[in-house]
């Protein structure tokens, strides 16, 4: 029997066959992937800014080299993801324009300030820890180029998480002042890290469809719960107090119960009123404007080479 394009697509999704760039796909599938992948890429690029602030202030050459490597990795993750988004028909310039004009979103977590060196530990441990929770399932997302980009990203992400945890471990075993700095960073980054997973499933307009299309393998709340369970155990190793007084092991659920998340704060930050939103977007706009001459030079060079060799 002749299958309609839609039936063919649906059967591939059901049989867990990757959807590739040249395959037919529903317009909404393409649209939601462009939305998610481009915003994921923006998150990686914006995510370089909070840590960039501490590369010149790292306490040792080793810490400086490791942080520099991590920030460079984030840039690479952004470029893989912009390339994956391009396979769906959006251009780099369109994506950059959406970011610089404030039209596109990027992860709320990067709109918070990094006030001490311990923030580099808390970000690696919590933010990259949350990113791993979210990105491992994305290695099996139904869109081929996105899944393949995630495989490479996840390998590097675990190094990011380990180096952050190691910073927190050294601080928590250091002087009283260092322990206090680690606890203070934990207190500031805990709740915003839970918000990274997105709104509660009941208030998530995209989750149901994304799960049906196997773009998402788990819902926002499922991944958030996994993160709370794992991180609460890790906090015990660090000897740090949980910033949430309502954290309590629930035997029959087999998970930790935890306190209420302030969703007003979340939507406020997503809307652009977080502590650093303006600073982050201004930094990107300035980099774009100040980098114009590099783009012009590269194009002039390419045109000359083409005229010379005709390739
Ligand atoms: N920050 C900003 N916006 C957010 C958000 C957050 N933490 N969580 C959700 N939103 C937005 C969504 O983008 C959506 O708005 P839109 O329709 O205009 O795009 C709206 O809030 C409703 O949320 P939904 O749950 O319905 O949206 P999704 O189904 O897209 O789920 C998501 C949100 C879980 C972030 C999903 O998009 C996703 O898994 N994205 C890929 C992972 C990603 O972007 N991670 C960024 C973390 S930073 C990172 O990975 C870098 C690492 O190296 C530290």
UniProtKB/TrEMBL annotation:
InterPro entries per UniProt: Aromatic_CoA_ox/epox, Ferritin-like, Ferritin-like_SF, PaaA, PaaA_PaaC
Superkingdom assignment: Bacteria
SUPFAM superfamilies: Ferritin-like
Pfam families noted in UniProt: PaaA_PaaC
The protein's name in its UniProt record: 1,2-phenylacetyl-CoA epoxidase subunit A
Species of origin: Nemorincola caseinilytica
């Amino acid at each position: 029997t002749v299958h309609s394009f839609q039936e063919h697509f649906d059967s591939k999704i059901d049989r867990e066959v990757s959807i590739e760039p040249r395959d037919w796909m529903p317009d909404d599938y393409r649209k939601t992937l462009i939305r998610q992948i481009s915003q994921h890429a923006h998150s990686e690029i914006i995510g370089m800014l909070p840590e960039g602030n501490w590369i010149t202030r790292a306490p040792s050459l080793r810490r400086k080299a490791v942080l520099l490597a991590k920030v460079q990795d984030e840039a690479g993750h952004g470029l893989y993801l912009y390339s994956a988004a391009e396979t769906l028909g959006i251009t780099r310039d369109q994506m950059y324009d959406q970011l610089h004009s404030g039209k596109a979103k990027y992860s709320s977590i990067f709109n918070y300030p990094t006030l001490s060196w311990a923030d580099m530990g808390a970000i690696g441990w919590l933010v990259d820890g949350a990113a791993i929770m979210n990105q491992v399932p994305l290695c099996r997302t139904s869109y081929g180029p996105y899944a393949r980009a995630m495989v490479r990203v996840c390998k590097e992400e675990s190094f990011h998480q380990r180096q952050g945890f190691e910073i927190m471990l050294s601080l928590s075993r250091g002087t009283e002042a260092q322990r206090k700095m680690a606890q203070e960073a934990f207190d500031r980054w805990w709740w915003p890290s839970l918000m990274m997973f997105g709104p509660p499933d009941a208030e998530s307009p995209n989750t149901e469809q994304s799960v049906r299309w196997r773009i998402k393998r788990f819902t926002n709340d499922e991944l958030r719960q996994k993160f709370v369970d794992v991180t609460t155990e890790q906090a015990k190793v660090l000897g740090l107090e949980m910033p949430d007084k309502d954290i309590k092991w629930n035997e029959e659920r087999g998970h930790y119960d935890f306190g209420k998340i302030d969703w007003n704060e979340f939507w406020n930050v997503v809307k652009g009123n977080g502590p650093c939103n303006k600073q982050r977007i201004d930094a990107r706009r300035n980099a774009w404007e100040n980098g114009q001459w590099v783009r012009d030079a590269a194009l002039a060079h390419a045109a000359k080479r083409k005229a010379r060799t005709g390739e």
